Fold:
Amino acid sequence: MKSNPFDEARAVLAVPCNRVNLLLKNLFSITIIIIHAIIAAPVLGGHSDKHNSSPANTNPLIKDIQHSHVVAVIDGDTIEIGGKKRIRYVGIDTPEAGQPFYEEAKNRNKELVLGKIVRLEICKAEPTDKHGRQLAYVYIGQTMANAELLKGGYARLLNIPPCGVEKTEEFRKYQKEAMEKKVGLWGERRQVITKDFIPASDAIRFINEKKAIYGMVVGVRQGRKAIFQDMGNTAKVGLRVVIFNQDKKNFEDAGINPLTHYQTKEVVIYGKVKMYKGTPEVVIGSPSHIEVWQ
Structure:
């Protein structure tokens, strides 16, 4: 039988066509693999980097740095910056309104920062206090306002974690130097009775208020976490004074043993009256919160 020339042509062409089809299929498969590799590369690379790179710094005391203009000084340890934001100095405490040396501390703070551009180092672990004030170390150039107030005796150490303990040892040194020089809070004071003075027997009437409370220390005892002083105007106890163990060093730096120094003496306590288990009490953390009046 004579072959059909068209069939022969198709047979000749079939081989290369099959090869072309196979080649195209291979190219398609390779292309798909490359596309997947490209898409996956960033993910895999990122995954690999995550394990090969050094771990992120999780130190809670890393600070946010801000530069702001001080528009007002509220008191010795609080200022206001633009946007009506209030800044509370970390690590120190100054007298409240009505307490001795309040005006002096406020005026010194004005001299340091009012109208100036300051650098705020705000602790990330606790950026604000319960009043919404930002907690910060405040710098004017290379000078830290927190430290200057301690050095001049305008402030006392306040080591409340997490942020307030970062510079405790440095701040304690400044406070001790001020005590030794007997400047500011640590110097001689005039004994002046103000409208904020109340007898210890009346403390229960002023819960959650800041007062100056006078009376006699009629008993002292060491507890597991604190020293407790019982204070009254007669034999009857009207107020309990609490000094936590962590704050004893503040008294020792001033040469005071809080277990014995105040026993049977007339004193004035400065602080906020709180009710705890049915008894009015005031927590104090420094000898500047208690004065012997005799």
